[in-house]
Write a structure and sequence with these properties.
The chain has about 400 residues and is α/β, with parallel strands linked by helices. Helix content is about 45%, strand content about 10%. A hairpin with a 2-residue loop joins strand 4 (about 160-165) and strand 5.
Length: about 400
């Protein structure tokens, strides 16, 4: 019987770093509020910048110094223990917690080299695959000449493709003979960063696939579909082989043109910055990850965000990126209400509007050319019901047959 470790030693280190980082960040925010309240500025206008002076400033400096010293001490204590203690099987729920944390602030975790940051890999049953032909043959018991790669969405992990006892990948393996492989990635990074890394992994996977490949398809849920589109773009630009083998992409609730919640968050963050009394709270809005801010309009390539302040409200400046050529692309949207409820239909699945999921846009140059026969809308379904509902699976199976 396999033992499960109650906690990973790297988790202790990672969460302790986050706690000290949070303390330092909160100290900065309180100091900024203190400075502005003490100087009594007008209701509107720019906030005062800089550290507090006198005894007050010394207090804040002392808090930061002690926090940094304690953080360094814990690093020095725990870091040598991680390779000695090893990482056993994950306790229940760990993967979901890490996936959500990475979605919310994964770019920060990666930039600070926090061990909680997820490294991209291709996995099966929650275990990372070694992309060497012999290792793949040993790790995957039912290899076939039909490969299916599934890419999860924001704040999720590959294990969450299994919902309410159903897994699209496992079902397609039984019904259509596909071998499912799951992408596992840090969804808080820029979509283009993940897209480029995904392109590299798929190239290596197909090069090392142990049997001759006849069919290759991708199913992407939510952000996973955007990462797949970005990967195809970068793979084509790099002259990779795998785009020639890709036959189908199925997009499940993918926000091709962004999500209203992120656009609303950007305007709220800007509103906090209008007054020196609330400007400090705008720092909280800047915690959200690059992956989340990419969802404002649906950024897919580096040029969509490079050189811009991603937290400032701005018009849609994306480079139009059409659907992959010579690939059959299918789009699925969900609506939480009934078909007769127009307002609910406009809101979509609670996260992604129907128009965004189906690639529709008021600008014809941005509209994605999904034929009517390759579109499907499910009513009475949420964003996450796309992972397990029978009607959804039957449509996917029909498209991939």
């Amino acid at each position: 019987m396999t033992k499960t470790s109650p906690i990973h030693p790297s988790d202790v280190l990672g969460f302790s770093r986050l706690a000290f980082d949070a303390t330092a960040g909160l100290t900065d925010m309180v100091e900024a509020m203190h400075l502005n309240i003490a100087r009594k500025p007008g209701i509107l206008g720019p906030p005062f910048e800089g550290p507090a002076s006198g005894i007050t400033g010394l207090v804040y400096q002392s808090i930061r110094a002690v926090t940094g010293l304690m953080g360094s001490g814990i690093d020095a204590l725990l870091s040598p223990l991680i390779p000695l203690l090893g990482e056993r099987n994950s306790p229940p729920g760990r993967e979901a917690v890490l996936a959500a944390l990475n979605g919310a602030m994964g770019d920060y975790l990666a930039a600070t080299r926090n061990p909680l940051a997820i490294s991209m890999s291709l996995r099966q049953d929650g275990t990372s695959l070694i992309l060497q032909s012999r290792d793949l043959a040993r790790a995957i018991p039912r290899l076939s000449n039909k490969l299916l790669v599934l890419a999860h969405g924001l704040c999720m992990s590959d294990l969450q493709w299994t919902r309410k006892g159903h897994s699209h990948g496992a079902a397609l393996a039984c019904d259509l003979g596909y071998t499912p492989v799951h992408l596992h990635y840090n969804s808080g990074l820029h979509i283009s960063t993940n897209g480029r890394a995904f392109a590299n992994l798929v190239e290596l996977l197909l090069d090392q696939w142990p049997v001759p490949l006849e069919e290759f398809a991708i199913v992407g849920h939510s952000m996973g579909g955007m990462v797949a589109r970005s990967a195809y773009h970068y793979a084509t630009a790099a002259g990779y082989d795998w785009p020639r083998y890709l036959r189908q992409i199925v997009f499940l609730g993918t926000p091709h043109h962004g999500a209203p919640l992120e656009r609303g968050g950007a305007w709220m963050n800007a509103a906090f910055g209008l007054s020196p009394y609330t400007a400090a709270f705008a720092r909280l809005g800047r915690i959200r990850s690059a992956g989340i801010t990419d969802l404002r309009y649906g950024n897919l390539v580096d040029d969509d965000w490079t050189g811009r302040d991603r937290f400032r409200p701005a018009p849609d400046l994306r480079c139009p990126l059409p659907l992959p050529e010579k690939v059959r692309c299918y789009a699925m949207a969900a609506v939480t209400g009934k078909k007769t409820r127009v307002l609910t239909g406009l809101l979509g699945d609670g996260f992604v509007p129907v128009d965004s999921a189906l690639g529709r846009h008021k600008d014809p140059q941005r509209t994605l050319a999904f034929p009517k026969s390759r579109q499907w809308v499910g009513y009475g379904l949420s964003h996450f019901d796309l992972l397990n509902e029978t009607a959804v699976y039957e449509r996917i199976k029909q498209w991939l047959t």
